[in-house]
């Protein structure tokens, strides 16, 4: 029973960051119809920025986190302006190839800048874990979970209760009609890509102090983000959030009770099973992004 | 310009090209195939630094066969596919007569068919899977111990530790699974109970599921086999989940100083099986060599934590040097034949090769020494 509770707690905590990663990716797909192959690299970028601020410059941990997320937003906006805007009306293959190129270029830049040796980030949280009955969890993971949930709710509020969010939803439903109604499509695209990128960078910056930072850390994350988005239904906000938790539970319980060697496979096996019965994902029938 | 003068021009051009390539052969090229980026990059970079120190030392004392040594270093990117590509490039394009590599057992096993295909010997400096030297590949010469040797050597020191029930957390590859098998056999042979063997992908960062299972299995000791990056994560997460077993790392790649720096208090009291203890070079079988290496490493401003890996690169290149000098040739087969007779005074100890594997197709295996260290009060201490 203790083991079951510990697995459930671990999966819940992990699910928070998976959901954050999935939402960033699904927003960009839903609104812009772009498969963002740089998602994992923005996660890595957030992690390295966290390292840069906290360990190199000695910035306060929480300020470093805010700065890392802000720079993630900025990098996302730059990618949209420099690479995606000129390709607005190009076919999906061209955009995909450019994004794959950007992924490789970003990863190599990070490797060149920071070398291949892993970096570690100190946290202000105590090393002794938070103990609840028979289970325990580190304070840094609790912090990550709380911030992730706050960001998910914040993003939801932004999409549903702000003018920008309304414009985003309008663009998602019909780009041309939204443009005729006075929505500045270019701005919406830049804002959406920046926001999605910011969420990926936030996940990287949050998890970097728990794990270690290295240039290829985004690869596995990118694969998982795609899985989460497909699981939840492409473009579906809550689908991605719930998909993140489903993947975390599948991995945690699969590794705990079936075989730890196939931990990553467990999530993907579940996704294959779900897609056999619901080829558009779990929640694709409902309204996307809203 | 008539036809003859054109021909003469072509011939002169060709001659200068040949002269150019002959000039390129005025060095002794040694291929180095290491993970310089990716999941186990720290270790690969340290091994390469050790190799560079050996090459510089050799060149400072006149080179090999009167020629300077040139290391051709290739990055295998911490994956077997790129390890094979690196080996092929070193053999075909750079035409190296001998190589050192490829750190992980999985990368080394992937490269081995290429050694057979092209007939080029490789000195294996780190890999420990038993399969490497028993699969009938006569081009492989390993200076690092097999997991079996490590387990037996540790078994002789078992009396120092109170182990009643042990669990394993190992990286899911030839190295990790091989270590789990050999240590399990050794422990069971000594009447010690073995609980669960949990595996983790080399790139896995979240080990919570494995740790929960290990906790549930009970036990007083946990053997961990993986690279230093993942080990850092494992130690931190043991602390988070209150796993209070005695942690013993195998494989010699734990870089305790890096653990102290990156895992902090979570590394306290962990025990590490190493093949070089740079904190006490005077205890090495050849103290003057070990002390000289440590001094040179420090003089270069390299990370002290890397010495436990760096020595492998040094010993590997010194072994290759001895073989080329003994062969008095840069022919791969002559170097291979000479490797059987080398007697090298290395940092780990005396290096020579015994035969392992099927008759007529034997691989070379060295019998290295092991050291046990522990982390106490944020410092490395001898555990013997």
Can you offer a commentary on this structure?
The complex is a heterodimer of chains A (290) and B (384). Chain A is mostly helical and 290 residues long. Chain A has a single domain (2-122, 139-277), classed as Orthogonal Bundle (ABC transporter involved in vitamin B12 uptake, BtuC). Chain A has eleven helices and two strands, in the order ααααββααααααα. Chain A has a two-stranded antiparallel ribbon with strand order 1-2. In chain A, strand 1 and strand 2 form a beta hairpin. Residues 286-290 of chain A have low confidence and may be disordered. The radius of gyration of chain B is 22 Å and the shape is globular. Chain B contains 13 helices and 16 strands. Chain B is 45% helix and 18% strand. By secondary structure, chain B is of the alpha/beta class. Chain B has two domains: 28-145 and 286-365, Response regulator (Rossmann fold, 3-Layer(aba) Sandwich); 150-274, Rossmann fold (3-Layer(aba) Sandwich). The interface between A and B is large, with 41 and 37 residues.
Briefly characterize the structure:
The complex is a heterodimer of chains A (290) and B (384). By secondary structure, chain A is mainly alpha-helical.
Sequence-ordered SSE layout with sheet pairings:
The complex is a heterodimer of chains A (290) and B (384).
Chain A: H1 2-32, H2 39-56, H3 61-84, H4 92-114, E1 130-132, E2 135-137, H5 139-161, H6 163-173, H7 175-180, H8 185-207, H9 217-232, H10 237-257, H11 263-277
Antiparallel strand pairs in A: 1-2
Helix pairs in contact in A: 1-5, 1-8, 1-9, 1-10, 2-3, 2-4, 2-8, 2-9, 3-8, 5-6, 5-8, 6-8, 9-10, 10-11
Chain B: H1 3-24, E1 28-34, H2 41-60, E2 69-75, H3 80-93, E3 99-101, H4 105-118, E4 122-124, H5 131-134, E5 140-142, H6 147-155, E6 165-171, H7 174-189, E7 193-200, H8 208-217, E8 221-225, H9 228-240, E9 246-249, H10 256-263, E10 271-274, H11 287-299, H12 307-327, H13 332-339, E11 344-345, E12 350-351, E13 354-356, E14 363-365, E15 371-376, E16 379-382
Parallel strand pairs in B: 1-2, 1-3, 3-4, 4-5, 5-14, 6-7, 6-8, 8-9, 9-10
Antiparallel strand pairs in B: 10-15, 11-12, 13-14, 15-16
Helix pairs in contact in B: 2-12, 3-4, 6-7, 9-10, 12-13
């Amino acid at each position: 029973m203790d083991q079951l509770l510990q697995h459930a707690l671990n999966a819940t905590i992990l699910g928070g960051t998976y959901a954050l990663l999935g939402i960033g990716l699904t927003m960009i797909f839903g609104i812009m119809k772009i498969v963002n192959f740089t998602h994992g690299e923005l996660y890595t970028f957030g992690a390295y920025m966290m390292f840069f601020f906290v360990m190199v410059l000695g910035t306060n941990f929480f300020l470093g986190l805010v700065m890392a997320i802000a720079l993630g937003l900025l990098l996302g906006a730059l990618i949209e302006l420099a690479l995606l805007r000129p390709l607005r009306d190009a076919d999906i293959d061209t955009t995909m190839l450019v994004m794959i190129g950007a992924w490789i270029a970003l990863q190599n830049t990070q490797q060149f800048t920071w070398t291949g040796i892993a970096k570690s980030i100190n946290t202000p949280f105590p090393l002794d874990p938070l103990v609840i009955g028979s289970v325990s969890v580190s304070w840094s993971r609790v912090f990550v979970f709380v911030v992730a949930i706050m960001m998910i709710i914040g993003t939801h509020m932004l999409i549903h209760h702000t003018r920008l969010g309304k414009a985003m939803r309008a663009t998602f439903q019909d780009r041309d009609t939204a443009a005729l109604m006075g929505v500045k499509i270019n701005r919406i695209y830049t804002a959406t890509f920046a926001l999605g990128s910011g969420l990926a960078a936030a996940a990287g910056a949050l998890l970097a102090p728990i794990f270690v930072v290295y240039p290829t850390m985004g690869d596995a994350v990118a694969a998982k983000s795609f899985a989460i988005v497909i699981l939840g239904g492409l473009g579906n906000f809550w689908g991605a959030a719930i998909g993140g938790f489903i993947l975390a539970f599948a991995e945690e319980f699969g590794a705990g009770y079936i075989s730890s060697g196939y931990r990553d496979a467990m999530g993907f096996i579940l996704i294959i099973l779900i897609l056999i019965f619901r080829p558009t994902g779990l929640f694709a029938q409902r309204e996307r992004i809203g | 310009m008539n036809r003859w003068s054109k021909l003469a021009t072509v011939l002169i051009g060709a001659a200068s090209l040949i002269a150019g390539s002959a000039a390129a052969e005025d060095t002794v090229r040694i291929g180095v195939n290491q993970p310089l980026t990716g999941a186990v990059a720290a270790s690969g970079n340290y091994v390469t630094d050790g190799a560079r120190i050996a090459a510089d030392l050799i060149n400072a004392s006149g080179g090999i066969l009167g020629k300077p040594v040139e290391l051709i270093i290739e990055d295998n990117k911490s994956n077997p596919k790129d390890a094979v590509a690196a080996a092929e490039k070193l053999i075909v394009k750079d035409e190296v007569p001998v190589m050192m590599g490829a750190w992980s057992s999985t990368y080394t096993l992937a490269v081995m068919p290429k050694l057979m295909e092209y007939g080029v010997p490789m000195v294996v400096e780190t890999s420990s899977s038993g399969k490497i030297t028993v699969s009938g590949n006569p081009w492989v010469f390993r200076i690092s111990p097999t997991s079996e040797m490590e387990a037996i050597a540790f078994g002789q020191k078992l009396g120092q530790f109170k182990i009643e029930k042990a669990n394993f957390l190992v990286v899911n590859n030839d190295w990790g699974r091989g270590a789990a098998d050999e240590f399990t056999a050794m422990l069971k042979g000594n009447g010690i109970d073995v609980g669960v063997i949990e595996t983790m992908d080399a790139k896995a960062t979240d080990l919570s599921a494995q740790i929960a299972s290990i906790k549930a299995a009970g036990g007083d000791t946990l053997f961990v086999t993986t690279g230093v990056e993942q080990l850092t994560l494992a130690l931190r997460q043991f602390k988070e989940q209150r796993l209070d077993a005695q942690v013993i790392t195998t494989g010699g790649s734990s870089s305790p100083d890096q653990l102290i720096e990156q895992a902090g208090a979570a590394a306290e009291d962990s025990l590490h099986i190493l093949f070089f203890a740079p904190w006490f070079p005077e205890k090495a079988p050849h103290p003057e060599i070990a002390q000289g290496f440590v001094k040179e490493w420090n003089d270069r401003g390299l990370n002290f934590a890397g010495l436990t890996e760096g020595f492998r690169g040094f010993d590997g290149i010194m072994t290759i040097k001895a073989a080329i000098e003994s062969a008095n040739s840069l022919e791969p087969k002559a170097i291979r034949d000479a490797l059987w007779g080398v007697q090298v005074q290395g940092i780990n100890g005396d290096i020579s090769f015994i035969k392992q594997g099927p008759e007529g197709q034997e691989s070379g295996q060295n019998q290295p020494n092991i050291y046990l260290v522990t982390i106490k009060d944020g410092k490395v201490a001898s555990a013997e």
